[in-house]
Amino acid sequence: DWTPASFAQETIERLKAEIGDAHVIMALSGGVDSTVAATLISKAIGDRLHGIFVDNGLLRKDEFQQVLDIYAQLGLNVKGVDAKDKFYSGLKDLTDPEAKRKVIGKTFIDIFQEEAQHIKEASFLGQGTIYPDVIESTSVNGPSVTIKSHHNVGGLPKEMNLKLVEPLRYLFKDEVRRVGVELGIPHDLLFRHPFPGPGLAIRILGDITPEKVALLQDADYYYTKALKDFDLYEKVWQAGTILLPIKSVGVMGDERTYESTVALRAVTSVDGMTADWAHLPYEFLSHVSNEIINNVKGINRVVYDISSKPPATIEWE
Ligand code: XMP
Predict the structure, then answer these.
(1) Complex ipTM value
(2) 4-190 CATH, one of 3.40.50.620, 3.40.190.10, 1.10.3720.10, 1.10.443.10
(3) Does residue 313 line the site of ligand 1, with CB under 6 A?
(4) In the CATH hierarchy, which fold is given to the domain comprising 209-304?
(5) Confidence band of 136 (pLDDT split at 50, 70, 90)
(6) How far is the CA of 119 from the centre of ligand 1 (A)?
(7) What are the boundaries of each domain within the chain?
(8) Taking the model in full, what pTM does it have?
(9) Is the CB of 198 under 6 A from ligand 1?
(10) Which residue has the least CA distance to atom 4 on ligand 1?
(11) Distance CA 135, CA 185 (A)
């Protein structure tokens, strides 16, 4: 019978045999899949796993440090790489969503390859691929190891010539989470909403600046906190704030304001392919609107997205 405990135990044994004395490098994203995969590999080979976690400047508020702390707590050998400036300069003045994705994907691969140069002993590349990714890349790209372009970690640089280790290749998401619980990975990380690889860059309509990122991180912080406080976070499949490229007039005391608008998005879904907008309670929406407008300087209007997918997508870009 499949149990998380037996899966973990057998996988660790199998990884020991497969990897032997070799070293593994792996890009970590702070997400469920890469964290569970890395923890299994680490239990098999210890510090011969070399994790790389890149701060692309497009993560949620305080996320980089929080995730590094969790990795440390799990005993993972991970290097945090602050590459914010590289991403911001690559993104400068870009407004087209696909152009942003391309730059982010390419910058990520450049940084990963540069870091990998320092780990010459590595002959394996660890990946948190799960079964739905396998199906998706098979149907989209033919039967190969190519990761969907959507995937958090971007394409695999072929010239790196590494053998793949994918301990979660035959698991579904709920099974990955159960294995994660078994391995002692914190609940908050395991039950996080999906978050796109390009991060907040595709939730800022128009060009990206560090100031806009900071503004959106703050709005997103209050939204996420309110969802948790109202016990709604795990009832929606995904939620996020979107910074709109418009300003509107408001009033604060005796002053006229002319500031930004954020849209709130929350959806229910099974796999992200289709989604319904979440019917969040009015009291919640009222609370979160006040929280954002009162606490985030630069935002004077909050709207709620009531579009389902299709035809709207979950992300606005
Ligand atoms: P859409 O917006 O297509 O999103 O309805 C479906 C799911 O995919 C995520 N998403 C992405 N994930 N890179 C990613 O890693 C991307 O470029 C990307 N675009 C969308 C989105 O957050 C949702 O979970």
Answers:
(1) 0.99
(2) 3.40.50.620
(3) yes
(4) GMP Synthetase; Chain A, domain 3 (3.30.300)
(5) confident
(6) 31
(7) 4-190, 209-304
(8) 0.92
(9) yes
(10) 314
(11) 26
